[in-house]
């Protein structure tokens, strides 16, 4: 071991112990296509070309954001890896792609083998749930960049879909039905606002109880992001899904609109699904109550994934998703109109909050459902953030 490097803050021996402890977690995700042994310079994956006529590789990358600060405060690190995988694989399955393999990047202030193993065990658990292989990664010890105990986590997923089955929303039509899959809570988005409300506005700690949730702050905030891959892949085998959206940063307003073609508006009814109690708790605790725009453009509000299908496929879609643990809810329809998302909600004074592609967000505009003009602030398409 380099004594000089250790004195500079990098402990190679601790890193080696961490890698050794990762091995069983990595091996638990192995698929038959994985090429090469654990510990190589790169991860190999032999794509089975006999399965595809025109394979399209679909990739995605994401992190966990400031949810990591909650993990550190709680002292629990085995769930954020699930979040990291979920944020990536849910994005690529939106396009109909089966996740094939995953890589992670863990940057730490000081290597703690227990902490590193806990994080990677969560990554492996997420990969097993998504059916993809963890074929590589990096643990970077960076004293001076991160304080001891601090870390950041990012992931990278690659999947494949037949070109003819690539889903991009271009075939969505007026009359299509919008099916939602429930979230497990905040997932991994909107944590900067959630942390401000819980820890600054309300002055709570991670050990305090949230009565609405029947659990502690830490338990509620660390609930991992739900992985929708198996349910969606099963659905794609039996139903012609026209459009999908993963509800991440930007909420329902900014993500649903990304899958709509011109001439289509999605009209959603927020009373159709059960809102997780964490959102009621956040509204109660906030010094300044979040507006309807804040709610639906920051958090998922209880819907983590959306599918758009033809009316004649509703019964089959509901059955397939239920068979695969999806707990689907019919939450709205696609109508003819300007490219936009309209949400009928009890959280807006007039009952409606809207996002229009050209002009941004309008709040409390009761005429929007019948085509009235929007107001409000302009925002870019999409919407990420933590």
Automatic annotation (TrEMBL):
HAMAP family: AIRS
GO cellular component terms, semicolon-separated: cytosol
Family to which this protein belongs: Belongs to the AIR synthase family.
Residue ranges constituting the PurM-like C-terminal domain according to the UniProt record: 173-343
Record-linked InterPro entries: PurM-like_C_dom, PurM-like_C_sf, PurM-like_N, PurM-like_N_sf, PurM_cligase
Domain called PurM-like N-terminal: residue spans: 56-161
SUPFAM superfamilies: PurM C-terminal domain-like, PurM N-terminal domain-like
Top-rank taxon, per record: Bacteria
PANTHER family found in the cross-reference section: TRIFUNCTIONAL PURINE BIOSYNTHETIC PROTEIN ADENOSINE-3, TRIFUNCTIONAL PURINE BIOSYNTHETIC PROTEIN ADENOSINE-3-RELATED
EC category name: ligase
Keyword terms of this UniProt record: ATP-binding, Cytoplasm, Ligase, Nucleotide-binding, Purine biosynthesis
Localization per record: Cytoplasm
Region of interest: Disordered: 361-386
Name of the protein described by the UniProt record: Phosphoribosylformylglycinamidine cyclo-ligase
Biased composition annotated in UniProt, kind: Gly residues: 370-386
Recorded catalytic activity of this chain's protein: 2-formamido-N(1)-(5-O-phospho-beta-D-ribosyl)acetamidine + ATP = 5-amino-1-(5-phospho-beta-D-ribosyl)imidazole + ADP + phosphate + H(+)
EC nos: 6.3.3.1
An annotated Gene Ontology molecular function: phosphoribosylformylglycinamidine cyclo-ligase activity
BP term (GO), one: 'de novo' IMP biosynthetic process
Pathway: Purine metabolism; IMP biosynthesis via de novo pathway; 5-amino-1-(5-phospho-D-ribosyl)imidazole from N(2)-formyl-N(1)-(5-phospho-D-ribosyl)glycinamide: step 2/2
Lineage: Bacteria, Bacillati, Bacillota, Bacilli, Bacillales
Species name: Kyrpidia spormannii
Pfam families per record: AIRS (PF00586), AIRS_C (PF02769)
């Amino acid at each position: 071991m380099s004594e000089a490097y250790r004195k500079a803050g990098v402990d190679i021996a601790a890193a080696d112990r961490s890698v050794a402890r990762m091995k069983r977690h990595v091996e638990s995700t192995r698929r038959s296509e994985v090429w090469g042994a654990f510990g190589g310079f790169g991860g190999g994956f032999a794509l089975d070309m006999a399965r595809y006529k025109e394979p399209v590789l679909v990739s995605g990358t994401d992190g966990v954001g400031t949810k990591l600060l909650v993990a550190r405060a709680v002292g629990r690190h085995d769930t954020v890896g699930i979040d990291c995988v979920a944020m990536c694989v849910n994005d690529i399955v939106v396009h109909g792609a089966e996740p094939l393999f995953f890589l992670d990047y863990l940057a730490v202030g000081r290597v703690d083998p227990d902490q590193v193993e806990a994080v990677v065990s969560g990554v492996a658990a997420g990969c097993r749930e998504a059916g993809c292989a963890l074929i590589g990664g990096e643990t970077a010890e960076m004293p001076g960049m991160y304080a001891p105990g601090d870390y950041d986590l990012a992931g990278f997923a690659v999947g494949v879909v037949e070109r003819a089955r690539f889903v991009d929303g271009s075939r969505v039509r007026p009359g299509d039905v919008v099916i939602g899959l429930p979230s497990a809570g905040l997932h991994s988005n909107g944590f900067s606002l959630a942390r401000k409300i819980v820890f600054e506005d309300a002055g709570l700690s991670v050990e305090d109880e949230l009565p609405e949730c029947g659990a502690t702050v830490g338990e509620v905030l660390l609930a991992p992001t739900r992985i929708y891959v198996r349910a969606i892949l099963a659905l794609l085998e039996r139903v012609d899904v026209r459009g999908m959206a993963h509800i991440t940063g930007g909420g329902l307003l900014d993500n649903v609109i990304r899958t709509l073609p011109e001439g289509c508006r999605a009209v959603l009814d927020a009373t159709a699904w059960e809102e997780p109690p964490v959102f009621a708790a956040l509204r109660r605790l906030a010094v300044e109550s979040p507006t309807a725009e804040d709610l639906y453009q920051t958090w998922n509000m209880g819907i983590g994934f959306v599918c758009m299908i033809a009316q004649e496929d509703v019964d089959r879609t509901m059955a397939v998703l239920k068979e695969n643990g999806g707990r689907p809810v019919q939450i709205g329809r696609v109508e003819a109109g300007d490219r936009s998302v309209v949400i009928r909600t009890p959280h807006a004074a007039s009952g409606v909050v809207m996002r229009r592609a050209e002009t941004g967000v309008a709040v409390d505009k009761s005429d929007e459902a019948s085509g009235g003009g929007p107001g409000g602030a302009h925002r870019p398409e999409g919407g990420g953030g933590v």
